[in-house]
Amino acid sequence: MNNPDKPVRFLSLVTLGIGSMVGAGIFALMGEAAALSGPAIWIAFIVAGCIALLTGHSYVSLGVHYPTRGGTVEYIRRAYGTGLFSGGCSVISYISQIIGMAMISLAFGKYAAILIGIDHNLPLWERVLGSGLILGLSLVALIGAGFIARLQTTVVIINLLLLAGFTVALADYLEPARLSFDTWPAGTPVLGSLALTYFAYSGFSVLGNTADRMSNPARQMPRAMYTTIGIVMVLYVGLALTITGVVSEQELVSSEAMLLPIAARSIFGEIGFTILLISAVLSAAACLNGGLFGVTNISFTLAQHGQLPPRFENKIGASTRGLTISAMLAMIMMNFMSLVTIALVGSATILLIDLLVNYGALKLVGGTGLKRLLTTLSVFASLGTLIIWVIYTLKHAPHTFTIFATFVVLSFLAEYLIQHRFGGKQSS
């Protein structure tokens, strides 16, 4: 994806989308979500996948009508006009990308530290290794090494096959009784993890940043979007089902980000544990590479419209200063927040942005019949999930809600100052 003049191919689109989703979803979030939903985790992934497909429909509608490298932030600007509201929302979208990068790099640090045998000062080394990944991939992007895009395609395909094979292998050891409704936690376990499982799908929005490089967006965008979400949904649900049917309930709710490697160890021993750790490291790296691509395009577009300072669009090497500034912000966030806090705050910001995009699609494109119905459903689905997140978080993790609210307030404050400092440079 490094050559901005060469039309992007369908396989590259799908691997970019999968790479931007799977690294964060399976390895960093499944264990955290399972801690909330227990054996009902596979239901949460089905519900979240349906919401992702509905929101993907909105991104397709907007991408076909407004092909641009800006993706989400361009859709928000067109739907809500120029000014403080759209600018503040666009900054929130930018922050959501940085949160995703922080989560991925911190997860990478955790897996890499365990893989190379570090058993002391683990939290410190997780952050050192995660910071190293951000710096390394940022340097590669600045150099403009074209082989990285080709390597990412290979890594994504290998990891997809490995995880699919792992799912099939686990199925032989599945105990159906573990999937019984009787094993579910009391109350509404799916609702508690719904925002986290939806966050596992969030990388599909990066496809919106590639629309201007598609030779035929009306054909390529829907094919790439639905294929990407569909493949990942099958993978997530399959893995959730098999893991739930194999590991004990205690391991399911206590393993956190290490759930998949621990499940592999329980069946295949240390070899399985090591292979899954390697897969996690490679998936996180591929996911972060896709995140860097998305955040660079978003920051460039925001700077063009005066919603970020002009320096974000200044050229540096084969990229822009938006890349280096975003990488620095992700490292700061990663070093001062826990993985679960980053994931919860990130899920809320993604839900808020997707709600704005869904409503924007209803305003700008609308359509008739089934298309309008799907877009309307996407609005209510994202709004309902965000409300569930707020209610759950206020009850169980109020500090996380405070962090999220602070980010929102700071986004609008920053946008207000930027517009006054730089004279409200806005392009149509």
Q: What are its keywords?
A:
428 residues; mainly alpha; Amino acid/polyamine transporter I; 14 helices; 2 strands; 76% helix
Describe the model:
The chain is mainly alpha-helical and 428 residues long. The protein has a single domain (10-421), classed as Amino acid/polyamine transporter I (Up-down Bundle). It has 14 helices and two strands; from the N terminus they run ααααααααααββαααα. The protein has helices at residues 10-37, 41-65, 72-80, 84-115, 122-143, 147-171, 189-199, 217-244, 249-254, 259-304, 321-336, 339-364, 369-396, 398-421; strands at residues 315-316, 319-320. A hairpin with a 2-residue loop joins strand 1 and strand 2. It is globular.
Main sheet, how many strands, which sense, barrel? Answer: 2 strands, antiparallel
At CATH's second level, what is the architecture?
Up-down Bundle
Number of helices: 14
| Low-pLDDT stretches | none
Separation of the first and last Cα atoms: 27 Å
- Secondary-structure-derived class: mainly alpha
Order of adjacent strands in the largest pleated sheet: 1-2
What is the name of the CATH topology?
A: Amino acid/polyamine transporter I
Concise summary:
With 428 residues, this protein is mainly α.
Task: Give the secondary structure arrangement, pairings included.
Layout (H helix, E strand, L loop, with lengths): L9 H28 L3 H25 L6 H9 L3 H32 L6 H22 L3 H25 L17 H11 L17 H28 L4 H6 L4 H46 L10 E2 L2 E2 H16 L2 H26 L4 H28 L1 H24 L7
Antiparallel strand pairs: 1-2
Helix pairs in contact: 1-4, 1-6, 1-7, 1-8, 1-10, 2-7, 2-8, 2-12, 2-13, 3-4, 3-12, 4-5, 4-10, 4-11, 4-12, 4-14, 5-10, 5-11, 6-8, 6-10, 7-12, 7-13, 10-11, 12-13, 12-14, 13-14
